[in-house]
Specification:
Order of helices and strands: HHEHEHEHEHEHEHHE
Distance between the termini: 38 Å
Oligomer: single chain
Number of strands: 7
Radius of gyration: 19 Å
Number of helices: 9
Number of domains: 1
CATH architecture: 3-Layer(aba) Sandwich
């Protein structure tokens, strides 16, 4: 918190040196409810505009692909999702930050016996995914249009068979490295929901993100599976190059493909 608290009007500064909580109404908590943690969110939730077709996808399709009660306002006691009911008899995979959804739809199409949950707070990306789902006709997907940390809250322990973190926001400035996904705030709950032996894939074109990933991820019960250079230089056999990766290649950046196992 800086020397002044930020007012609700964007750009205005309150003259009183008080934390923001003094300007917000107090919340009452019912018996049995969990206490909502303070979670800062960085990045965009919506772009400048949505196409009419994207607005229609969100209005008509998003609710049908909901995994259930994830957000705090609809699930304040953090009741776990019933994954067996959502994906009966299927292994469950999780993609964290699916961007425009190319990889998510590809994996769903190639693995119809798997249930896949995708998390993405950027609503334009969610709308793009819903359009791809319509065109591909896949049904073994659920979409959480929000923060992956809220999803971690309601996933049962040791319930996920595979997880993907593909080209996450790099937050290149040193003072912003704590905003990256590969920090304890995210890795601890991720480790909790992954089954022993589950695979965790990370793709990035940022060398310093590789460094931080290799430093942090093994501290939370993961083993890096690389045995030689090709294990991080060559993409996975079932990989589909995303729009972001193609942009990185055009600009001369080198993708890295890191595979971990939950131990």
């Amino acid at each position: 918190m800086g020397p002044h608290a930020i007012c609700f009007d964007e750009g205005a500064v309150c003259p009183l040196k008080l934390p923001r909580r003094y300007f917000e109404p107090k919340e009452t908590r019912l018996m049995g409810e969990s206490e909502r943690p303070r979670r800062d969110f960085y990045g965009r939730r919506k772009g400048k505009h949505l196409k009419a077709s994207q607005e229609r996808y969100l209005a008509e399709d998003l609710a049908a692909f909901s995994p259930g009660a994830v957000d705090w306002d609809v699930n304040p006691d953090r009741t776990p999702l019933n994954l067996e009911q959502i994906f009966p008899g299927s292994p469950v995979w999780l993609e964290i930050g699916f961007g425009g959804g190319e990889h998510l739809v590809h994996q769903a199409s190639e693995n119809p016996g798997v249930g896949i949950i995708g998390c993405e707070p950027y609503i334009n990306g969610v709308a793009m995914l819903l359009g791809k789902i319509r065109r591909a006709g896949v049904e073994n997907l659920k979409v959480h249009a929000g923060d992956a940390r809220d999803m971690f809250d309601v996933l049962p322990e040791a319930s996920i068979d595979k997880a993907f973190l593909l080209y996450p926001d790099p937050w290149p400035k040193l003072r912003h490295h704590r905003r990256r996904f590969v920090t304890p705030e995210h890795l601890e709950p991720l480790a909790r929901v992954l089954k022993p032996g589950a695979e965790f894939r990370v793709a990035t074109d940022i060398p310093d993100y590789v460094r931080q990933t290799l430093e942090q991820v093994p501290q939370f019960g993961f083993e890096w599976l690389a045995e030689g250079p090709d294990d991080w230089r060559v993409a996975w056999d079932d990989w589909i190059s995303t729009r972001y990766e193609q942009k990185a290649l055009r600009e001369g950046r080198v993708p890295h493909y890191l595979t971990f196992k939950r131990v």
